[in-house]
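Problem 12. The chain below contains 687 residues. Write out its predicted structure in token notation.
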Amino acid sequence: MANSSNHRHIMLRYVIVTGFILVFSVLIVRNLFRTTIVEADEWNKKANTELLRTDTIMPERGDILAADGSVLVTNLCYYNVHIDYGSDAFKKEEYIKNVEALSDSLYKYFPRHSRQEWHDILLEQVSKKKKSRYYPLLKMINYAELQRFRSFPFFNIGNSYKTGLIEVPVMKRDCPYGSMARRSIGRVGQTAECKEIHGISGLEKALDSLLFGKPGVYKRVAFTKGIGNWVDKPALDGYNVTTTIDITLQDILENELNTILDSCQAEWGCAVLMEVATGDIKAISNLERDKHGNYIEAYNRAVVAYEPGSVIKPISMMFALEKGLVNNLDEVIPIGASFGYGGGRPITDSHFNSSLTVAGVIEESSNIGMTRITIRGFDQNPEGFVKCFEDIGFFEKMNSGIFEEETPRMTRKPKRIDMSRMCYGYATAVPPLYTLSVYNAIANDGRYVRPRLVKGISRNGVDSVIPVSYIRDSICSPENAAKLRTMLTRVVEGKHGTGRRLRNEYVKIAGKTGTCYHIDLATGRYDHSRKRLAFCGFFPADAPKYSCMVLTFDPKKNMFGAASTSGEVLKNMALKMYSRGMLGDYSDYHDNVAKNRAQPVINASASGASSSELINALGADNSPRQFSAPKSTDDTLPPSVQNLGIREALVKLEQAGYEVRFTGTGRVRKQELTPGTNVVKLTLSNK
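Solution.
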């Protein structure tokens, strides 16, 4: 009976299991029929919708490089670290056990909080009833810091499911040299119109189409084991842009500008250094005082138009020379206390001169003299004066590579009074870079080279060099350029020059000072308590290699003149470059060798090869003599060097005229003079 009962129970279970299987089979077949036949169109539509979906592959933005290939801006991957405290696999007990040690590690390597604050944060998150699934623990740490974090207690388990560790990579535009030339290089970011990362200022924006690259496309494709992504069109990374910036010169210029601004407590300052022959902008700096009194990279004022002041006078003089209004630099121009012209307020100078030569007008910066010369040719044709600027391409866009670049602003149909003010730097607005470009042309024998911040682009091993270009092949004759260089040199070297404090015995500087009052935007009138101080010039004056313009705004103590502020930046820059041999000021041992000089002496222990090398380097006229040590005799023994180290032993024996040979390591345990020679053999040992 028992066996029969068990058999029935087994059969009943078998029937129940079989019944469930049959029911499930029917349901599967039913759903399969409904999906593949009844609802086939609907599911096919969904599948096609998924397969038709495409997405964008963002390209990697190109790097911005210095002239020598050093990276100024690049893309670096940082990481945001989040913790999933709500994960079912999270090891809560192990976490609490390691909180103390974890707090110590976080405080040591990420001291954003105190040790106790880290401890409280870690315990608070794990103790919450509703645990965070995405708690931000650390932000923007680099890969090395992430690797260190993974070695911390609890997180060194290595299983992200158990630790709740979530690592989110974030690409960031990074500057290895910090704020160096930061404003000129520019920034990137999103805009209201576009969520992609594009340049929003400086070089980043001016060359955004090159740096950004071209996005790619991937689409959804049906594979054997499901639907996956398929790259339909790969992204094309952006070009790397090589700038003309010289890291060394950039560093010097920024430091010199910062030092002068700090000394005079100016509100802001900007400076541009350019290579005369090529127009390459080798360094550019824009510093502004923040609320803490520190100077930081600020708005790029090198390409913003301001009233230039007297730095415009050499350009006006260039037009006068080219038009034949003056020719002889020693011609005397009447000056006087004031000069009424055009019906406005009489024109005056900062100091009285009854008369000045043509060269003296620039040397002593005479407004009256410059006006008297200019009206010789443009009294009845003031528009012709502005036409001179137009003819040299002064109003054209330079396309230097700086996005914020403005063009000069002048009244195209000026009145006589307007023209008389324009010629000495008022009633007009000119960006410092434009003023510098003309001074650079004067230094370059009249060739008006285009300033540039970019000299090449590259991608995937293909380099493209951007050639030097010219705004005009010539804006003045070489003869007139030479006359202008003479006048600008006298500004510094002359007895009454406004820049005479920049005179030095190492680098001859040529240039022009300029002072202009600030216009109060609220009243539209000049604020005579605030001035812009400029100095524009080139060096060395006799054979110009570099041109430079510096602008300083509103100094408040110590120094208040254009030469003592902006001019000092240029002078100090020139002297630093001279001291480093950057101006071709190198010397050679063979140059200007004095007669009856003392000849170099070669130590007796020098090998024959070393002696020959030095003799060849110095040349026959400067041939050194070999020091001959006395031959040892029985009563002449070398000094004892027992128990000395090898360095001390060598010095002592070689000073006595002996040649040393040694074996072993450690201290001298034995010394032996080779008979008939001056060779001492040393045996070294650590015992």
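Discussion. The chain has 21 helices and 29 strands. Students who got a different answer should revisit the alignment rule from Section 12.3.
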